[in-house]
Amino acid sequence: MKKKMILSIAFLISLLPMLFNQYGGLKGVQEITGLINLLNPIGMVSVILFVLGVWFPFKKRGISKGLGALGTIGIVVSEIYKFLTWHTLTVTGEVSLQNSIRLAFPEFYIGLTISLVMVIAYFVIDK
Question: What's this model's pTM, rounded to 2 decimal places?
Fold first, then answer.
């Protein structure tokens, strides 16, 4: 039970940077919150997989561990996907790594780093 609580708290902490504005043209002019990382299908499914893997008992331990791992990795995938595509339909009209880098705020990189640390922490804690 203690391990489940630690994993859940660490997972929630890794999601906190998504509350900040992570994307946009200029600070104070056009800002988009990092919640779009969670509100897309990849983010939603990732949270569900994490909760299932950590809190629901499966007969085979590997299933729980795999689902939890997919959940943590999925958050990183969701962040990278949104990083590369959020501006395509609304701002630039094209997929461009240069635009993604130019239009992402430092908060995005902080959040991505924290999510990557969570993936590593998950595998260390859930041995």
Answer: 0.88
